[in-house]
Amino acid sequence: MSIYIIEHLEPKIWEWCLIEYKNISKIVGKNNLWFTNIKEKSKALKELSKHGKIITKSVKDLNLKNACVLDPEAKKTLSSKEAKKFDFFIFGGILGDYPPKKRTKSELTTHLKKAKARNLGKCQFSTDNAVFVTKQIILGKELSKMKFINELTIKINDIESTILPFCYPIINKKPLISKELIKYLKSH
Ligand SMILES: C[S@@+](CC[C@H](N)C(=O)[O-])C[C@H]1O[C@@H](n2cnc3c(N)ncnc32)[C@H](O)[C@@H]1O
Question: What pTM was computed for the model?
């Protein structure tokens, strides 16, 4: 059984982070999910603790063996054959930025000397979609067999819309994004 680890790297558990983290729990199940580097004590933390294991320490201090860190800057792409052999998959709890600041590499991969770094292609996924894609690869579907779009426009009302310049898997002909995030975007 694979364990998915989200190393929280934002200064706060922002509402947007919480929405993504809760969605990750739905994707992989709370028993397979660890949130590391959680230093704050807040209402958000109380909520988060219902959706996975909370660890105050950074994943960098857990000394895990047989781990894979998902990093857009990694040289090799994760394959199904290899994915089945890892015990831990580590992701940056980092909100998307454009152009990407390569924070996964500088804040995570560089410090995880024992972990193997792998990419999920060249474009940037949200953390929840990166977890979704990784789970598909573990289940045997190669990245090259999945379909994506490079940006998503969310209609806020008749006049305004928001463009999310990230990659979204196409599932049942629709881009994969949580209903809760759409609700959040429409109300902010
Ligand atoms: C929104 S991304 C953060 C990207 C950030 N802009 C950066 O520069 O690293 C959140 C996390 O999803 C995972 N991720 C997203 N896209 C990826 C890709 N193409 N390959 C591997 N991991 C990816 C990484 O673990 C990353 O830390």
Answer: 0.97
